[in-house]
Amino acid sequence: MEKSNLSSEEEKWWGDNHLQQINGFWFMPLIIPRIHRVLAEFKPRPTDVILGSFPKTGTTWLKSLLYSIINRSSLDSLVNNNPHDLVPFLEIQVYGDHESSDSSTHLSSSEDTTRIFSTHIPYQLLGKTLESSGCRVVYVARNPKDTLNSLWHFANKWKMAEESPWELEEAVEKFVSGTVPNGPYYEHVMGYKMASLKNPGNLFFITYEELKKDTKTHVKRLAEFLGCPFEEDKEVEEIVKCSSFEVLKNHEVNKSEEYTTWVPTPYNSFFRQAKVGDYTNHFSDDAIKRIDALTEEKFHKSGFVYGI
After folding, report:
1. Does the model's pTM come out above 0.85?
2. Structural domain tally of the chain?
3. Catalytic residue among 84, 98, 120, 282
4. Which of 51, 240, 268, 285 is the most exposed place for a label (fewest CB within 10 A)?
5. Within-domain flag for 300
6. Is 170 among the domain residues?
7. Within a domain: residue 202?
8. Is 120 noted as a catalytic residue in this protein?
9. Burial (0-12, 13-18, 19+ Cβ within 10 Å), 8
């Protein structure tokens, strides 16, 4: 894909922190050159698996599941490694500019090896790159209210929140306007949703809620989509268990208060509650009504009845 033009437009999303646009989507300024690198340099292989997601929609869980399904003989890797180190973000770890972002290390492997990467880049930007390769893409969506609730909690564990927390009222306002990292949320989800309807053989779309409700069934579906179906149910059960929130949260590496080398947040910030409906404990009735009205407009009127 050709390099996208960066709009000069900026908007504040949290205090004095700004976001910048690429083709209608908002990103933190430090991510912009990394996204351009991905679009210019990343050449997916047909054997690659790419996990797409909007921030805080179940990315960590899906990384654990995908890694376990594809690397069944290495389940113990989840004990000693945070899932984000096993399945790196293209625009943060693989093509980032940190000392920890060594693209040659992440990208080097034999041609017959299944590489797994993740990204928050919208399909509207990355789609041509993915489609041209024939790689498999898995996208996870989550109820918009729980997505915002999780994003709000997560952002307030960042270093910059120590001086000035992200207030919930401001978070709701920015989410509704679309001015949050990788937003607008609704356009992000619909980009992948429509692509999955167009090409279901290469893009597997699943919601966080249906995965929570019947994890075993959907893990089987994922394995079939990835071309490595299970032969025995006990294999499925083992992967569901070792990738569960309860098990992962109690590994020492995931309880660590040390900050990662690639985002300014501690490892334990990736494991909070993983509940469906926790937003009801934090959001006002007015905030819920505003988000639900937008969900109806953006999702339901497009034929995607989800999120309320």
Report:
1. yes
2. 1
3. 120
4. 285
5. no
6. no
7. yes
8. yes
9. exposed
